[in-house]
Here is the input.
Amino acid sequence: MKILYEEMKTKAAELFPDRKFIPGEGNPNPGIVLIGEAPGGEEEKQGKPFVGKAGRNLSEFLEILGLKRQDIYITNVVKLRPTKINPKTGRASNRPPNKAEVEFFTPYLHRELEILSPEYVVTLGNFALKAVTGDKKAVIGDVHGREISRGAYTLFPLYHPASIIYNRSLKETYIRDVEKLKELLSEKGR
Ligand code: URA
Here is the structure.
């Protein structure tokens, strides 16, 4: 994985200069790989995925599953922070990843998954769902909380933690989905 990340970092620096590269991290032989969208400000500061506000939901996810952060592998589709400059404050704020960023990083995500070879891939939100399936029309509202066989692994899509923060009913759906994942894992004795 180190070699893959070095290649990614070098090529990303050519295409997206002056942006900090934030690799995935965790168990190198994981049962579950969790895939988010892209790092935010706190992730950029610490150089790690899912350490900021939306990442706090990760603790809830792990708690329901009875797992620790280091038990799973955590990564993002886009491995640098997509930013725009707020004209009022002059400061950088987050924006959704653009086409160039998604197209550059998606083939690398597939290579990451080959190396990690997990049993379950849990995508968070639409960006990760589309990148993993290659289906640009896939929407999280249609497939969340379901097992989807992808041959080498089982895909289990979830809503993105950022989308549930201010939406109570989505949050309940998200929790139900994670509980379902727990049942599936315990049926498999994991
Ligand atoms: N932090 C990440 O690393 N990824 C996300 O998708 C959201 C927050």
Observations:
- The beta strands are 25-26, 32-36, 73-76, 83-85, 92-94, 120-124, 148-149, 154-158.
- Helices lie at 2-15, 41-46, 56-65, 99-116, 125-133, 140-143, 161-164, 168-187.
- The radius of gyration is 16 Å.
- The chain is about 45% helix and 15% strand.
